[in-house]
Amino acid sequence: MWLKPEEVLLKNALKLWVTQKSSCYFILQRRRGHGEGGGRFTGRLVGALDAVLDSNARVAPFRILLQVPGSQVYSPIACGATLEEINQHWDWLEQNLLHTLSVFDNKDDIASFVKGKVKALIAEETSSRLAEQEEEPEKFREALVKFEARFNFPEAEKLVTYYSCCCWKGRVPRQGWLYLSINHLCFYSFFLGKELKLVVPWVDIQKLERTSNVFLTDTIRITTQSKERDFSMFLNLDEVFKIMEQLADVTLRRLLDNEGFDLDPDLQEPSQITKRDLEARAQNEFFRAFFRLPRQEKLHAVMDCSLWTPFSRCHTVGRMFTSDSYICFASKEDGCCNVILPLREVVSIEKMEDTSLLPNPIIVSIRSKMAFQFIELKDRDNLVESLLVRLKQVHANHPVHYDTSGDEDMSREQIKISLWNDHFVEYGRTVCMFRTEKIRKLVAMGIPESLRGKLWLLFSDAVTDLASHPGYYGNLVEESMGKCCLVTEEIERDLHRSLPEHPAFQNETGIAALRRVLTAYAHRNPKIGYCQSMNILTSVLLLYAKEEEAFWLLVAVCERMLPDYFNHRVIGAQVDQSVFEELIKEHLPELAEHMNDLSALASISLSWFLTLFLSIMPLESAVNVVDCFFYDGIKAIFQLGLAVLDANAEDLCGSKDDGQALMVLSRFLDHIKNEDSPGPPIGSHHAFFSDDQEPYPVTDIADLIRDSYEKFGDQSVEQIEHMRCKHRIRVLQGHEDTTKQNVLRVVIPEVSILPEDLEELYDLFKREHMMSCYWEQPRPVAPRHDPSRPYAEQYRIDARQFAHLFQLVSPWTCGAHTEILAERTFRLLDDNMDHLIEFKAFVSCLDIMYNGEMNEKIKLLYRLHIPPALTENDRDSQSPLKNPLLSTSRPLVFGKSNGDAFDYQKQLKQMIKDLAKEKDKTEKELPKMSQREFIQFCKTLYSMFHEDPEENDLYQAIATVTTLLLQIGEVGQRSGSSGSGSQECGEELQASAPSPEQDSVFADTNTGKIPQDSQGFPEGAEGDWTISLEHILASLLTEQSLVNFFEKPLDIKSKLENAKINQYSLKTLEMNRQSQPELKLSSL
């Protein structure tokens, strides 16, 4: 066990201990008198002393000391009762710490680092023991408090688990704590006076892998778009990596792949996810993949046991898996014996008498008069009780109809049929048969034509679905036929392209059956609908199975055996292509080295996976591949693909380009024959080389399949599922990168913001969407990420999310008025009134704010203060102005700095005339602004000028311009009511000039504050008072300080840096404010 380091002097203690091993920093010692073969007096004395001591005072016989070179002070860090135990600690130190310590220059730093690491290991061991005894141990609550205090997430961010580890920064390790939450990976360290906080959202992780470096043999590497982080020195690295892999997979699929991902019920609510749930999910995924069961099947229990196997006349050691509708068995020796027992096939489950030869036995009897004996079952009583309850439920939901009819007459391929019949007698002939290496060899030889459809149903367990849903297919056909939609049009287009060379599909009978199956499935599963290559697969299924059986085989392939293959983005097929590339590098390194870009090869092999080789080799050969697929699942396709590449490795290495490689593979696949096929040969879909000048060597499919099993059959289901999990992260992130690049490609030509700044903005925009997915209940207005939509529409934000971003990155921040301005901006950008905006609209608006000309900025501000941006229900629509200040009966005389007065009467008249001419040239004129809207416009300008270095000058300038515009509006009002021209109206403005101090339309311009006790402007006073954009722009141009304000360059980079730092804290503040309604926005 690890010990809390305490300093000791060894000057007088050396006689009691003998050094066994030593290194630069560590010493492994044995207590004298322990493990000594001789009878030295000192050893016997120490041994006798330890023997008579009280058990609490006894010293462990082995220990490890930390020694700093040059120091007489040592620190015990571990002890052990046996040599094996202490050697485990020593090995851990050598693998994780020894090489690391050389990076420290200071000896004190070495001692501090090692002691801190050992203390963290002790704390983790303690928490692990407590977690085993208690659901929520005190240590976890302490860690939760620290997690919340250190990272300041909203309460909805659930901590799943935590670990002690080191995070590497260059060559220097930082000892600290790794916190894994439902949406983030976080690391905290406080070492040598320096604090380090690291927060990585799971959706930003592009690679999660185990690797090694020059210092450590095993680390976990996290790769994001911009950085790589290495974590090491875990107490149990395997456990940590599995939990991280599960969290990354669940979160990425929940947020980025909701098109084809259905969460387990236990994981539907992310805030309820626990470490135990993730471990259960991993076990569930393995269970369903290994036995190829429906996705909705939930694993209940896994227990060690032994199964009587009559063919070997002994009990086979393995594990029993029980789920909602199945009892399954897998031998510990991979491939030795597997059994799948659907509960609907089970007649009875009984306990037998417990004996020394047969401990804790149970007998499971099935309909076909077979019985399975399981022994050595722990907690047998509870197991049988729970199985009987589920058995009763299954039989109540799906009544059993016993089939007493005999087997079909099997007259073809007599040798193969005889072998299969012998096998059926010994191993069973139903879905409950013993699945052994012998049956795999029979399948590899090719299933007899007369048994093919029946065995496909048994191996895929589609027979259980067929029996459990009587009448289901007929009802689907009735509901779906006759309906016309995009899917049915696609099906009709492909019907006559499905095995056109086969006689069965050269008449309307075969075509009609194919149409019914495809249309019924599209109706059953609208998420998939219809995908190209489903027609080829279904047509082959119809050749060997009845129509309803073919439908359930298609269900098994699309929903269980090839998950996510047939949706909009074929994610599953792309994941398996990435796995295939990794297998090529592992098994065919020379070929991988020659073909630098394996993605080109993957593009060739994609059809192998999508059509199970049916479209690229002769049909009579390809059906043997399908035989193996239904028995072994996707593993069969992986190993056959490797065998094809291996057989052509020499030619592929000699190919000059991708086109030549394609020709090599196509020629080889087209000349694969099936010597045992009873029917006439039927060519593949693309026989490119039928007119060869010289004959090409023929390959027998049975030989190719045998080679695939012998050379590449060592991949287990667990390994494949692990690789799928790893590569799914990369594939999903690849799609995210593609989406990002396509959106930026459209936006970059239309704005002046630099591309690197646009990337930062896109990341902020996406993160804002994601944070709402993390911590808020889904709102109908803000749907989840939808990868089936066009690129530009995949991420959209609602008004609340837009307000956060506006506050973070907009240069037009107006204090408490910012939120109101953000609401108006959102309404302006929401053209289609769906309460959502896309990235392009968001950036176009920002581009005007940062890079637009003055007239563009004023036009945007103008539009923000007229409908639809400004509404009658706007929460700031009431004017803060006092009624007397709205009087425009004063002449246009403004105070100048030299005290002289200057009359703008002539300039005003000329301005109105010029603007009237400009209006005639404008194609689409913006509506005029009412006085109420104008007052809101002025208020926004006042708010924008607050805290500007030229604040006072700007306030005086806007007061001057406001007075001018109020006069212009009144001139237009009087002109409209009297019918006289602008010159006549201008003459009406003669009156005594007030002092300059009285010209401030808004109150105190020195402070910039707007009176709070003002009354709303009475509606009747507005009348037809209006002002146009041209009036406002021309008036603002008369004040140089205003021109300078709107034309000064703005730095978006500093805003973006601050936004990245503050985005999370702003969201947290808003979430806390929602939980405490009394807090106002002003608290920001």
In whole angstroms, how far apart are the ends? 50 Å
Alpha plus pi helix count: 38
Helix content bin = 40-55%
Q: What is the number of strand segments?
A: 28
How would you explain this protein's 3D organization?
- With 1084 residues, the protein is α+β, with helices and mostly antiparallel strands.
- The chain is 49% helix and 14% strand.
- The strands form seven sheets. It has an eight-stranded antiparallel β-sheet with strand order 17-18-19-13-14-15-16-20.
- A hairpin with a 2-residue loop joins strand 8 (184-191) and strand 9.
- Helix 5 crosses helix 25, helix 26 runs parallel beside helix 38 (1052-1075) and helix 33 (951-978) crosses helix 37.
- The chain is globular.
- It starts with 7 loop residues before the first strand and ends in a 9-residue tail after the last helix.
